[in-house]
Write a structure and sequence with these properties.
The protein has about 325 residues and is of the alpha+beta class. It is built from eight helices and 19 strands. A seven-stranded mixed beta sheet has the order 1-4-5-7-8-11-12, with no helix packed on it. Strands 2-3-6-9-10-13-14 form a seven-stranded antiparallel beta sheet. A three-stranded mixed beta sheet has the order 16-19-18.
Length: about 325
């Protein structure tokens, strides 16, 4: 005797499928697992449409807010016209929190930047060579930053705090926007909206709040010290648009940023050249154009050798 699934169970599964489709981890036109799931119960197609509509509404909201450029829509074979009841329907789609019952893992390769809408209405932007794991529960939303960097716009939910783990570092928010970059011995925390609370496991009595426009390096064995840095934060988060913005950084610091995103590495042959400061905005995945700008601005010489772009002082006559 088979047990009929509840509507809630189907909604949970539909949220998982919709998130996987939206994130690009499966092809909805060819994935046999999705096709079998849909064919097994006539209620599932409607549930998937509702979950996809909720994600689509979230994407439109982000695009209108200018937070992150809306990705180009993909053709999904199950997508059909939905009958809209106007703003009431849109509000109900966002308000219906579809909980994921198992962790979801997302990662990016070299030079890749990924935008992931979560089932609660939050959004995660994942930087190059990074990995996150997301688990939604009835009383807490948990994200584990396994490596790299991510920026979070957190949907407000007082009953379910949003907690990011990076090694022994913890960052807690309810409804705000912030980034976390993991290092071997701690994490950089930068807040663009609202306030977050951060601490280290074992040092819970030293919790510190970091407000919008401030950042803090949270070390494993030292209490964090927030500092105002709104302009620095905006520049450092330009990666969300695939950009690197320089405002007086040294060439050595700039090269370190470019090398995070590219297989072709820039090498500086002259220590004096490395200390020169630069101003400009560049595509993160275009080291050649950056090297050309360095040659023009600093009078440097550029030599390309396979996967290496070498910068040195130009020969003086």
């Amino acid at each position: 005797m088979s047990i009929r699934e509840s509507a809630r169970e189907i909604a949970d599964q539909a949220a998982e499928w919709a998130t996987r489709i939206d994130g690009g981890s499966i092809d909805a036109e060819t994935d046999e697992g999705l096709r079998r799931w849909l064919d097994a119960d006539p209620r599932r197609k409607g549930a998937l449409l509702r979950a996809e509509a909720a994600l689509s509404f979230i994407d439109r909201g982000r695009a209108l807010a200018g937070v992150i450029p809306k990705p180009k829509p993909r053709a999904i074979w199950i997508r059909r016209k939905l009958i809209s009841a106007g703003a009431a329907l849109a509000a109900s789609l966002v308000g219906a929190a579809i909980l994921m019952t198992s962790p979801h893992r997302y990662h990016t390769g070299l030079g890749e930047i990924r935008q992931v809408p979560l089932s609660d209405g939050s959004v995660v932007a994942i930087n190059t060579q990074s990995a996150v794991e997301v688990a939604m529960h009835s009383n807490v939303r948990e994200v584990t930053l396994t490596r790299g960097e991510a920026w979070f716009r957190v949907a407000h939910d007082k009953k379910r705090p949003f907690i990011v783990s990076a090694g022994r570092i913890r960052v807690r928010a309810v409804g705000t926007a912030f980034s976390v970059r993991r290092h071997d011995d701690g994490a950089d925390v930068q807040v663009t909206e609202g306030v977050v609370e951060t601490w280290t496991i074992g040092e819970e009595d030293r919790r510190v709040q970091v407000a919008a426009g401030s950042k803090a390096y949270v070390a494993e064995y030292e209490p964090p010290k927030p500092i105002p840095a709104s302009e620095d934060i905006e520049r450092s988060l330009a990666w969300r648009e695939g950009q690197i913005v320089l405002e007086g950084e040294t060439l050595d610091e700039a090269v370190a940023q470019f090398n995070r995103y590219n297989a072709r590495k820039i090498v500086i042959s002259d220590p004096g050249l490395a200390a020169e400061k630069l101003v400009g905005q560049f595509r993160a995945t275009d080291p050649q154009t950056f090297a050309g700008a360095v040659a023009t601005t600093l009078g440097a010489k550029v030599d390309e050798e396979g996967d290496t772009i070498r910068l040195s002082r130009a020969d003086r006559q």
